[in-house]
Specification:
Order of helices and strands: EEEEEEEEEEEEEEEHEHHEE
CATH topology of the largest domain: Arc Repressor Mutant, subunit A
Helix content: 10-25%
Number of domains: 4
Distance between the termini: 66 Å
Largest sheet: 5 strands, antiparallel
Shape: elongated
Amino acid sequence: MLKLGEYQELTILRDTEPGLFLGNAEEDEVLLPNKYRPESFAIGDTLEVFVYLDYEERPVATTLHPYVTLNNFGYLHCADVNEYGAFMDWGVQKQLFVPFKEQARPMKVGNWYIVYLYLDEQTNRLVGSSKTNKFLTNETLDVEKYDKVAILVTHLTDKGANAIVNGKYHGLIYIDDIFEDIRTGDTLQAYIKKIRSDNKIDLVLQAPGYRSIEPNANYVLDEIKAAGGFLPLHDKSDPETIKNELGLSKKSFKKAIGSLYKDKQIVIKEDGISLLDEG
C-alpha cells in the first residue's frame, strides 16, 4: 500500500507520456509527472519520492521535499482562506487544507502557523491542524535529563520560549536561559535541563552543567580563531557584552575559557583572551 504523506523507495515500472509510473512490492502504482523525472534513469531503478493526493484526489509522487511529513509538525505559511478553511503552502504543488474545526484560532492569509500533518481516516486525505496541543502529551516520557533533543519553537512569552520536543512533548526554555535570538518556527538542537515532578520539561540550548564545558570551549576557541587570534572579552567583562558577542551566559563563558586555559590553548589578559601562540 502506498504511504501518503511519507517518503518511500519505489521502483520505476514504465515510461509513459504523462511521466514515469512507479510501484512497490505490493504492486501499487503511482505517477511521477514528467517535471519530476530524473535526467537519466532505467526501468527497474528505485527512486525516493514523496506521495500525496493531487487535485483530483489521486495519489501522485514528487521529488520535491515538503516542509512537513505525516504525523509531524511544521511552520507553514497560509496562502489562502475560503468558506471551507485555510490552505497552506507546504512545499508541494497542491496546498495543504486546514479546516476551520482544526484551527486553534482563525487563520489569516499571509500569516505563519505551527501545523500538524495527519491522515484523516474517514476521507483518507492529508489534513493539517493548528490545534497542536491535542497531538502532544507529557504523560509518559522517553527522554531524560541531559538528553540532546530536537525542538520546534512554537511561541514566545514573558516566561520564555515554548517548544515541541522530539515531535511529542511540551517543553520550555526559560527567559534566563536564552542567550541568542530565537523565533517562532525555529528548529533547533536543545538539551533537557530538568524534568519536573509533573513531567514538564525545562530546556536549554547549551548542554547543561559540566557537559557544557567542552562544547562551549570549542565554540569560544573557534570564535577566537575567527577574530584573528584575539577577543576583547575576559572573566571580568560585562555579562550583556558576553551575551551579545557570543550568545553565552557569563557563567558558561568563564567555564569555557577556564577549560581552554587549563588545556594551555589561550592566554587570559587584562584586555581580553588570545591564542597561546599569539601571547
